[in-house]
Specification:
The protein is of the alpha+beta class and 246 residues long. It is 27% helix and 30% strand. A seven-stranded antiparallel sheet has the order 3-2-6-9-10-5-4. Strands 1-11-12-13 form a four-stranded antiparallel sheet, with no helix packed on it.
Length: 246
């Protein structure tokens, strides 16, 4: 690693951002060929492998950047559990791991979180997708959604509803609200994480565990399985739940 830093600092002609091959290959090549203008060599390599691709400018979008899905669990004023589907969810660091979550528009979930400052984030899996899609396409204020009965349990640390069928659940406490024009970012402390016991089995690989729980990702207004299979467009998996509720 020291040689790699010295080579590129001395040559001043390329940086890590200029290189799109594997890091190990790059470091080895740099160490063995000091002073190489790697940008030129990279282009030659890409031409040989037929990897040159033109880029075009488009409107702001996060298409082709898959996101994990969560059902946020809250209690309403009557003490009834409510769940909403969200994917604007990521992590922060401020001495410890935290969560940042964004909710846009006027939603019951957002209203409940403001009142109680706590909520659960339940990982959506393939088994949960029909329910999650239905909840994500049904307004929280609707009587039909309010009448739904969920298999839940109470959080271990916080007074939040937890979906029994979700294999990974965060119990979150909001520490800061950041208001936006038509939405809000919430910076949250992770008070507890609930995981199925199979995920704690150190004898199994992470790959096998992920395959077992099959978390869902979304991009391009479509759902995808962990293995990349399309699971339908937004609004499609929930049709079965909608028909059953009718």
């Amino acid at each position: 690693m020291k040689n790699w830093i010295a080579v590129f600092s001395f040559s001043g002609r390329c940086s890590e951002a200029d290189v799109d091959i594997s890091r190990d290959v790059w470091i080895h090549y740099a160490c063995m060929n000091p002073g190489t203008d790697f940008r030129q060599d990279r282009n030659l390599t890409k031409k040989k492998e037929g990897k040159i691709m033109a880029k075009v400018s488009i409107h702001p979008t996060n298409d082709f950047c898959p996101q994990t899905l969560f059902l946020y669990g809250t209690y309403d004023d009557e003490g009834q559990a409510n769940f909403g589907l969200f994917c604007w969810f990521s992590y922060t660091w401020d001495g410890e791991m935290g969560v940042m979550a964004c909710i846009g528009g006027n939603k019951l979930t957002r209203e409940n979180i403001h009142k109680r400052k706590v909520f659960s984030a339940n990982l959506v899996t393939e088994d949960l997708l029909p329910l999650a899609d239905y909840l994500g396409n049904t307004p929280g204020f609707s009587l039909k959604k309010k009448a739904m009965d969920f298999e839940t349990e109470e959080g271990r640390i916080l007074p939040v509803p937890v979906l029994k069928a979700s294999p990974v659940v965060f119990e979150l406490e909001v520490r800061q609200f950041i208001p936006l024009k038509d939405g809000e970012v919430m910076l949250c402390g992770i008070r507890n994480v609930l995981q199925e016991d199979l995920l704690a089995d150190e004898a199994e690989s992470s790959a096998k565990k992920l395959a077992a729980i099959a978390p869902v990702r979304t991009t391009c207004k479509e759902y995808f399985g962990w293995d990349g299979r399309s699971l339908g467009a937004w609004g499609e998996p929930g049709k079965a739940v909608s028909a059953a509720e009718s």
